[in-house]
Amino acid sequence: MDITAPRFNDPDKAREHLEALRWPEGPFCPHCGSFNATRLPAQRGRPTKAHPEGAIRSGVIQCNDCREQYSVTVGTVFESSKIGLHKWVLATFLLCSSKRGISGHQLARMLGVTQKTAWFMSHRIREAMRPTEGEPPLGGEGKAVEADETFIGGKEKNRHKSKRAGRRLGGSWGKETVFTLVERDGKVCSTHVQSVTAANLRPILVSQVDKATTLYTDDAGQYRHMNRDFTHEVVNHGKDEYVRGKAHTNTVEGYFSILKRGITGTYYHLSAAHLHRYCVEFDFRYNTRKDTDFERCMTALRGITGKRLTYRRTGQVAA
């Protein structure tokens, strides 16, 4: 894809691109659901400090039934944003096409915005990447799903002396846990969990994996009784067993290598409050790995509808 395309440089072209994507059959009122609408000429908005004479509002549409006015961004994660739509479309493409992600500082330099703005834009785009409710579970009859967990965070030896535990602890101490399910030749689903226990992991497995699936895990204790819900096969890593026929967890560990390389090499440091959003980003790129960059970007832009993420909500930890 050519990043010099008009939709990446012209707000009006970006708006037309989004309208064609969201409204293939014409403008659709988000207030009453009517297709009966009239396009209004460009209007001058209220005077503000940034625009004393009032900014020009383009793309405003008025519903002929409920008489409400709206634009293509109403009811999306782009709503109420002062950033030009062409920058939103370009930021979406950059985040979708970068295999290991793109840092807020790099995105800010490329878009000509502040790092704080670029950081918030990234989180809104990740919200658009989030799967919608009602998606079918992973696996099914004759299919296999691998489950494993990984730990995100720095090493104890690299911490400042004042922040070290002062005693020998396991390698996962002080780190955040990501539990991931990967369907072979299918999709991935990652969840930020507080701890690795059967009580925490079993509800996730039961809700996200079809019961007819063959589940492959390592020999960790939290998976010991998963045969009550699935056909469960185990590889004993404690005895240096990593592959036994079809039994292995190499697919999910391959996904972890992409996730960790992105966090270590691109994002460097991230808060536990936002870890679930980064998991959504890497899940999305993995699930669309067979698409072109253009197709992946279009999928993300279709996901902006029906989602909102305000600045206050960004800092909330996922339930």
Task: Explain the overall architecture.
With 319 residues, the chain is α+β, with helices and mostly antiparallel strands. The chain has nine helices and ten strands. The chain has helices at residues 11-22, 85-97, 104-111, 115-129, 198-208, 250-267, 275-287, 293-302, 311-314, and strands spanning 37-39, 43-44, 56-57, 61-63, 69-70, 144-152, 176-183, 188-193, 214-218, 231-235. The chain has a five-stranded mixed beta sheet with strand order 8-7-6-9-10, with helices on both faces. A hairpin with a 4-residue loop joins strand 7 (176-183) and strand 8 (188-193). The chain is globular, with a radius of gyration of 23 Å. The two termini are 37 Å apart.
Topology:
Layout: H1 11-22, E1 37-39, E2 43-44, E3 56-57, E4 61-63, E5 69-70, H2 85-97, H3 104-111, H4 115-129, E6 144-152, E7 176-183, E8 188-193, H5 198-208, E9 214-218, E10 231-235, H6 250-267, H7 275-287, H8 293-302, H9 311-314
Parallel strand pairs: 6-9, 9-10
Antiparallel strand pairs: 1-4, 2-3, 4-5, 6-7, 7-8
Helix pairs in contact: 1-2, 2-4, 2-8, 3-4, 4-7
